[in-house]
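ok here's UbiE/COQ5 methyltransferase:
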Amino acid sequence: MNMSIRNHWDTESVTYDSFVVKGFSIKKEREAWQTLFLDALKSKNLRLLDVGCGPGIVSMQLADLGYSMTAVDFSEKMLAAAVKNAADNNLKIDFHHGDAENLPFEDEFFEGVVSDYMLWTVPHPEKVISEWFRVLKPGCRIAYVDGNWVSDPKMTRLKVCLSNLGVFLDSPSRCFHGKCEVSADLQTLWSVNASRPADDIKMMEKAGFTDICVRHNIQDSVLHGIRHLAYGSTNDHFMITAVKPHTS
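and the structure:
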């Protein structure tokens, strides 16, 4: 994976970590995310892989429900934060340093794959999706969250200003570093010019996934109050779920 991506997330690790740690500590928000992923995965007690785990928020949410979690990230600073967060919450998660485009796991090893706000940052999303397919057991499910960060029609000047105010009220230090925005070193990413989630669906189909479903505006059910104003009022946060079919 491009080193500029790792450098970007290494730089963002402190402010992003504080954002997700706060989210995990808010019971209503944590339980809303857990319900969302439970509905998407359909089953409990699965061996799951979290790709692009960042500070570990999704892995922690799912480990808290009893899932067996393995997590991987390209940023060593994000991984260090994730290890600390898991330990602070007494959650057992198997963390690995690795590239989402070349996952360090065997074929058909996991009973589910999850990912959270990661695919937009990778240089070659089709490779990542192909890797998801490879490590997933047949009949099992992928559930990932992302957003349309560039061309969403909700990104009016007024809403962006109100959102920035919400970021400041929720986390003043994060306000000065931005939210999930496209920084200068990421301008060449595929997601800048993509039609999302339409392009995601095409890549998922090409990789071999079936039963592909999209749930739009999930932020309306998981974020509340100031945090919804800050992080959920200007973009469509969507979840895509799909199944790796059994071979005939």
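+1. The longest helix spans residues 3-25.
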